[in-house]
TrEMBL record:
Stretches that traverse the bilayer: 17-38, 58-81, 88-106, 118-139, 148-166, 199-224, 245-264, 276-292, 299-320, 326-345
CDD domains: TM_PBP1_transp_TpRbsC_like
Superkingdom, natural source: Bacteria
Subcellular location: Cell membrane
Keyword Transmembrane helix carried by entry: yes
Record-linked Pfam families: BPD_transp_2 (PF02653)
GO CC terms: plasma membrane
Membrane topology, record value: Multi-pass membrane protein
Naturally occurring in which organism (per UniProt): Microvirga flocculans
One of the record's GO molecular function terms: transmembrane transporter activity
Protein name: Simple sugar transport system permease protein
Keyword terms of this UniProt record: Cell membrane, Membrane, Sugar transport, Transmembrane, Transmembrane helix, Transport
């Protein structure tokens, strides 16, 4: 006997919504069981992880700040994933975008440069991320190299470049030998949306990216092209869509948004270059993209949910002495539950014998 999956023909939107709710509840139950095994109260953990951050105005601002780069990167990744192309190197594109945009901030440091500096930094960040994203796209289309491997390996190249710069030529000479650049001038800093607040304009960029992507993917020929390329590559070729052009386009878009996230985070949240400017946003955004089912609005919601686990995880580490790695484990459990729920909605499990009978 064996289990087989047969496609369902009547999977409704309501079923998918209920499946998502069930997946979240299951993930929380599994996480609660793990916490109970570790000798902590699951109820107290739920309070620290979820309720306290949502009831604290400062924590809500931090929630938006952490969700911003993940939303931007995940929106970019959705272009690749919809076309069945796998950009695993958004973390490297994030870093290179931050590096190239910061170059202008350091070049104009102390020169009383005008208002043009910040827009130029953002543009350079987009260009840097896009060009870095085009490297695995070019290798795939020209030489047939697997984009998963090349995009992933380029992450470590980008991180080593950043580490070299902040420890070498870009290190602050008055920084007491710490590996960091000088603090950016106000003209090179992304201002907060509200005075004395923590949320910077990177959050506005994320919302704009969500709205634009919703229109592009849902109401344009390019969006249809990505869907057709991902679902039926042969049909896309018969329709005259170039797989090479599609690959280059989606990797450029994906890298550009990751680069925008990088320079927005450095200019808005950190204020200088450091050896580590990301806790793994580029990799976490892959989870966010699939939790949001590659839907722009879903990605925005998923980024807030994952950001909540970051905030709650930091609080649980302090208040409940729970390891911070538990946060990453929960994110993985959540993704597995969502994927399993999707599979159960899309397919029917059937038990068959070797002879083919039920």
């Amino acid at each position: 006997m064996r289990f087989e999956l047969t496609p369902r023909t009547n999977a409704s939107v309501g079923m998918r919504v209920l499946a998502s709710v069930a997946a979240f509840i299951t993930a929380f139950l599994i996480a609660g069981l793990v916490i109970w095994i570790m000798g902590r109260s699951p109820v107290a953990a739920f309070d620290v992880y979820v309720l306290q951050p949502l009831s604290d105005p400062w924590a809500i601002q931090e929630l938006i700040v952490k969700a911003t780069p993940m939303a931007l990167i995940a929106i970019g990744l959705s272009y690749c994933f919809r076309a069945n192309l796998w950009n695993i190197g958004a973390e490297g594109q994030y870093v290179i975008g931050a590096v190239l945009g910061s170059w202008l901030a350091l070049k104009t440091h102390g020169t009383d440069a005008g208002f043009w500096v910040l827009p130029a930094m953002l543009l350079l960040g987009i260009v840097g991320g896009a060009l870095y994203g085009l490297i695995p796209a070019f290798l795939k289309t020209r030489f047939g190299v697997n984009e998963i491997l090349t995009s992933l390996m380029l992450v470590y190249v980008a991180q080593l470049v950043l580490d070299y710069l902040v420890r070498g030529p870009w290190r602050d000479p008055k920084g007491f030998n710490f590996p960091q650049s000088v603090t950016f001038d106000p003209a090179a800093t992304l201002p907060p949306v509200f005075e004395a607040g923590r949320v910077h304009y990177g959050a506005v960029f994320a919302v704009i990216a969500v709205l634009v992507t919703a229109v592009v993917l849902g109401r344009t020929l390019f969006g249809y092209r990505l869907k057709l390329t991902g679902d039926a590559p042969r049909a896309a070729r018969f329709a005259g869509f170039s797989s090479r052009a599609t690959t280059m386009a989606v990797f450029a878009i994906s890298g550009g948004l990751a680069g925008l996230a990088g320079i927005s985070e450095v200019a808005g949240q950190i204020g200088q270059l450091q050896p580590s400017i990301s806790p793994g946003y580029g990799f976490t955004a892959i989870t966010v993209a699939f939790l949001g089912r590659l839907n722009p609005i879903g990605i925005l919601i998923a980024s807030l949910v994952v950001a909540l686990t970051f905030i709650g995880g930091e609080s649980a580490q302090i208040l409940l002495k729970l390891p911070l790695d538990l946060t990453q484990a929960f994110q993985g459990i959540l993704l597995m539950c969502v994927l399993a729920a999707d599979a159960l909605v899309s397919y029917r499990i059937r038990l068959t014998t070797r002879g083919g009978g039920k």
